[in-house]
Amino acid sequence: MFAKIKTAGLKGLDGFMVDVEADVQNGLPGIYLTGALSPETKEAQYRVMNALRNSGFRMEPRKITVNFSPASERKEGTGYDLPIAAAILAAQGAVSSGKLERTALVGETGLDGSLKKIRGVLPLAFFLRENGIERIIVPSENAAEASLAAGVDVIGCSDLREAVDVLWQILQGEIPEHSAACGRSCSVYGSTEEDAPDYPVDFSEVRGQDYLKRAAEIAVSGRHNILFSGPAGTGKTMIARRMPTIMPRLSREENIEISKIYSICGLLPGERPLLSKRPFRSPHHGISEAAFAGGGSRAMPGEMSLASGGILFLDELPLFRRDTLEMLRQPMEDRKITVTRMKGSYTYPADFLLAGAMNNCACGFYPGKRCTCSKAQIKAYMGRLSKPLLERIDICAEARPVSYGELSGKEASETSARIRGRVEEVTAIQKARFQDCGNIRYNSQMGIREIGRFCVLGREEQDFMRETFQAKSLSGRTYHKILKVARTIADMDGSDAIRTEHLAEAVELRSIEDSLFAPAGHGRDLPPEFRARGRETC
């Protein structure tokens, strides 16, 4: 007999429909799987047959052929176990597959017939809903996660026997009891916009460093990439780790898109199928290229994608391998990354805010008296960052040592909640500005057309930028970065026009380039008027 059960597979974040076809005939007993399968999917023949026997189903010694259609798409993962078992039972006559055209099954089986949690259920549920599936049977541990796809019935089952009982109820036109239970769970996890994220850190814990805190607020307000530089122990990492606390709260749409990535990697919290906080990823500088950009045997998302919607923090930036850092360049512009392997190409989002931190020298004490590095050593250490990469970083803020009075002072610092309130006001301004500009949501994402439309300069501002462009030998990309940052600073001031003081502060926030790429010298060769005008605005 022949039977067909519907399920789906994933290629990156994109799904594709799969028909699991089973044919049971007389012949040499055994089970044969066909259809471009990965090793873990082929192993289902051992898991499924033992699970069926241990669940009490009688398996006659017949030749069983299971085909996965379309055969042109590679099937990966263990989520095909449950549809294989259902297709075999239907082909043997234990159940009927005639009325299951709108029902899909996904899940892994244990040898005892239990259904185990799998990765990627969240994007699978949304894809199945969009392709006309009305009902999804999943392992119980995946039910709450799948139920986030509103408009599709999600039924959680704990073992094969329970799943077969559910199929019989569906065939008889009954509504399974599990469906109502999942409806209640959906209401629990349905909305996160009202939930205030609870962070273990706060900006009120940071003493001093008002300049760095101002730079961090500008970066978050306009979604600008930022680099903190300065001596060791001045609070660079401390401030970077608190930047998620001042980012706008996740909307439901953003939360679902981020959670899809974490679902594929199996990183969603067990007690809650949605993330409540923006991601903060801080990989070690010894990370491999595959772990950073994505890849491996299954081309899984890397740290760039896991940081999408949040912050990718690279501490001790010059210690990362140069080829690893250079991989950032295209994703920082395109906000996505395509991982190409022999088995196919997979595109993942990479819409992160890059935050980096670095010392000014190898010993970490420059420009203090304890620095033992020579001019050549300092130049070599800071020169590990290429100019094309640095040009893609909008803000470069330099830290100074914190005084004893600042550390021991009892005056309360500004809280993250208060800063976040200002950030959300600036975000609302940008949302209104870019409502007819496609996917652009922040000032940092503006293209040449949007810059010409929203960053118009007056005569005085043009004269200032002309002098700056010539004095610093700016590239076209750096010039546009300065305009974007100035636009954000103007929004923070509530100004429709970009003024000279906004441009001056934006120029000051890129002063590290003078240290990195000056032809010679141990110090900062900045025009004094630029530094003075930029500091005044802080």
Describe this structure in words.
It is a single chain. Strands 11-14-17-10-18 form a 5-stranded parallel β-sheet. The longest helix is centred in the C-terminal third of the chain and has 18 residues, at 416-433. It has 2 domains: 2-189, Ribosomal Protein S5, domain 2; 203-536, Rossmann fold (3-Layer(aba) Sandwich). Helix 2 crosses helix 3 (81-92), helix 20 (459-472) packs parallel to helix 22 (500-508) and helix 21 (476-492) packs across helix 22 (500-508). It is of the alpha/beta class. A hairpin with a 2-residue loop joins strand 1 (2-11) and strand 2.
Kindly name the structural category.
alpha/beta
Number of helices: 24
Strand content: 15-25%
Give the total of beta strands: 18
What profile does the largest beta sheet have?
Answer: 5 strands, parallel
Please, what is the oligomeric state? single chain
Give the distance, in angstroms, between the N- and C-terminal Cα atoms.
77 Å
